[in-house]
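Convert to structure. Protein one:
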Amino acid sequence: MRIRNIAARDVLPVRRFEVDGLSDMLVIAGQNGVGKSRLVDGLIARFQNHQQQSGVRLLIEATCERERSAWGQSTLDTAAPPDLQKLARTLQASKSRTKWESSVIHFESDRSIAQIQPYQFNWDVIDPWGESLGWNTTFGGLKARFQDTLHSLFRKVQSHEKQIAKRAKELQASGASSMALDFQDPLILFKAAFSQLVGPKMLLDLDPRNQQLYFDDAGQRLPVSAMSSGEREVVNIVFDFILRAPSDCIIFFDEPEIHLHPELSYRLLQTLKTFGANNQFIFCTHSPDIITASLENTVVFIRPAQLSDDGTQANQAVIVTESDATNSALRLLGQSIGIVSLGKKIVLVEGAASSLDKQTYGFILKNRFPELVLVPSGGRQVVESFQQLTDNVLSQTIWGVDFFMVCDRDVTDPAKAAATESAAAGKLRYLSRYHLENYFLDPRALTLVFEELEPDHSWLRDIQAVSNRLRGLAKENIAYAVGLIVSAELRRDVGNVSVMPKGLQGQSLDALIPLFADRALQEASRSRSALDPARVEALVRETYLKLDAACSGDSDEWIISMPGKQVLARFAGLASIDLGRLKLAYIKAVQKHSLNCFEEIIEIFGGFASHRH
């Protein structure tokens, strides 16, 4: 079965929520405090409490012949008492532990693993796969359910061994001297899911007497308690899910991304879809990644309660699609409307969806400004159209959400940076250094990184040696730096070529041609002026001499003006260390020794956090 329509009234703080034609995946999104979780609780309560009056009305659609036959119809309306009784009989029918059909499963936001108590075995070990359970055991309580899941796995192994021994005795009694050993591992699905979730780690065979899960990690046998909290959480969820093998079920999932790295969250959702059949997933989420990936299904935003023009309560459910007009401003950033669900203060940083800059800023800031949410913005092309960025994004408040932006210095004309920051009224800030990576070029911090990695005599532990090597790498990179700086300035001067004339409406072909020709001449003249060879030569010469002087002197000016990405990458190569690992170790060293390498970055984000309208 699946929910086709929802009509909810006064499930506070939600006043009115109405959607219909739902798909097999429904995503309910919105800001904190708008009432997402309360609404989901109301939907679940409608399934649990069949006799009570409720502000929730559901239209339930059959997804298999078994349901249609039991109901005598294809849909049930919970507003009709006879239909509500049919739904109650379906839900309350006896359920097999590993054949969970036509039911509701709830994965609440609290999915931590409680202390597992040992199971008291006896001689009469019954195969848990055939046991019946109460119909409402899957309404919440995952923390407690995990103990039952583990006990079932331990008992299954014990039962499996008992069945093998029984079969051996039967064959021996019949005169057989050998027996086929092709017994299927009862945990094969659990092992496969474990690898899919947290591979290359592998789940090891269970020892019922020890009653502990162990896994193999690069040849080491470790207990599951040695895994990260996020890894333990997804194992908790998926093992519970696999054990029940749900089909034709409605599965509520409150904040699947909570406590999880985006990649682990993605693996979790993909793994869940692998098991069971004809299930409908209802996700309550803040994750723009989940929202964006679900736009081809049903995505519903809950907006704040408000009255319609006629004085009645307006529907708070906003169906979002790729073609939704609200997306127009956000497409400039390579984002969808899903970004609005993240919080009330969103800081845009350069990069694609899996932005390394976002991760770097996150590691630097840690939990210093919890009210700020960092989102990749798509790159330099956004900032180069500053007026469009300001008009369409930074000056807008979408459903109470404010946007800010921090950029590398390389995306703007340094002479205009202060003016553009001022025009944005504190919502756009440029780093004073060329790249974010320029803040990772402090020689002292770099030597601290290698204190425990290199022997005492290594040049990587000598501040002067590291400083000289960095400066040398910068000098070798001057020509490339000139190319980046000059081409960026010329690109800003030339801009996008547009031959679109004004006043085209109603023009004839004969009138249209000269309008385009005149516009093309204007653009050609502007481009020729910007790309005048003498001007380009002067710009190259000026830029080269400036960078060469910065790299040759005793000051650290080169750390500000030279492109840091290339210098840091080459330094990582010389040090034989992965660039990402070097950055993370650098951040840890700065924080451990209280260095001020990231002081400016922290100040910028502090300004965003304290910003008021």
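Protein two, convert as well:
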Amino acid sequence: MTSPKVLIADSISQRGVDELSREHALEITVKTGLSERELIDLIPPFSALLVRSQTKVTAAILNAGAKLRVVGRAGVGVDNVDVETATRRGIVVLNAPGGNTVSTAEHAFSLLLSVARKIPQADASIRGKKWDKKNFEGVELYNKTLGVIGMGRIGSELSRRAIAFGMRVVAYDPYLSATRARSLQVELMDELDDLLTTADFISLHTPLTAETRHVLDDARLQKTKRGVRIINCARGGLIDETALLRALQDGHVAGAALDVFEVEPLPVDSPLRSAPNLVLTPHLGASTAEAQESVGIEIAQSIRAVLLEGTIRNAVNMPNLDAKTLAIIGPHLRFGEKLGRFLSQIAPKRADSININYSGKVNEVDTTAITRAVLKGFLQLAGGSEVNEVNAPAFAETLGLKVSESRLSAPGDYTDMLELSAVGEGKTVSVGGAFFGATPRIVSINSRPVEARPHGVVFVLENTDRPGMVGRIGTLLGDHGVNIATMSLSRNQAGGTALTVLNLDTAPDEELLMEIRASEDIRSAQVIQL
């Protein structure tokens, strides 16, 4: 029997190659710098493809990989891998999420010092045979305030180093619990604007999502203190580069340092290159010998586990399950993720805890994978596409989110039921789901009985229970061209508070929502996107 073949298409550490080659259980081929066409021609006999950031793993390459079972990315992101095509073809996509944390935090701190003391500019000046001390007067970090946007692994590591330098650290992360913030010795800001007006230095450490794209735009940059200094070692696109250039030119931003860019490699004619108060590095956050060795070993071990043991870890697109178990609980995984996503949109952003209660026949199987699917759905607003079934528990821990499971031996009204609840900011919210035969349904919201389909747009209203309310809401939606697919009503008592849950064909726009919420009879109106 021939050994599975692994193609290493980008350079990784020798220890990573040695780990893959260990005991000669896998046949290793190293060929770097390949074009897409060359990879398409080469890939058919290989079971695994290992890349870093240089090689783009396109749909054409994945479709050509007749024997391909796993793609490994030696690094955190998988932006250069077509995950959707890989999933559709049953190819596991792995990454190495833990290897570059210290490396990136240290690089961010190096840039922090560089913009404070103008070190790169002073070096360039003296190499140009000048001795110009007066133009390179800097500022101290001691007693200054560092604002950290995003308190994941890297943001937390940067904060520790800043505190050691005598800095006050304030943080904005709508998903970080107050308890976790206290343990990190940082001050948690309720609003991003509070951080912007307070910080002398700002460092970004969030994933790039629809919510965080251009989180620092023209308007927000103008809210910062005049003379602020800004660092980005996270993701290109978090800062509007054109707006940053304007703020650097007019002196509102005293200095900035970028390791990541909206377009990489940075175009030769980019105006960023000529800004004198801007430090630029070519995406070096993970570029240390230690980090490259760490991610190389980590991804090699994960690929070996898939090919030789059938064990999946650090997967972006699959739960850690064998085929038999997946067949049994597959529907619960998909439904659990939807319920988690629903809960995240009605829960306080700074949730302290989440509980998943299982009742009925689902108690007869290992529910770990379902809990992970729930967490994936719940945390994706906070962590973006980098959150998956494997890393969701660790991501929850980073945020200080306590996760628990509970079980009811008696199923009650349903054969199988999942009820999720989240606690935060003194408030508890919940959503429950059950199967009607093979059909999943949302059957409770905040312990109130309802029935709604768990997909598309779900509109949840709390309103005064009075005659004509349903007609008024229906008329308003109709006037704005929004069609109601299904409706479910629930109330606590006659004349009390009613819960109206609508499945809509399209999402209501902001103008319509404002009109609905303006009514004194509407307590709340939430649009849930599933």
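The mean pLDDT is 90. The longest strand covers residues 427-436.
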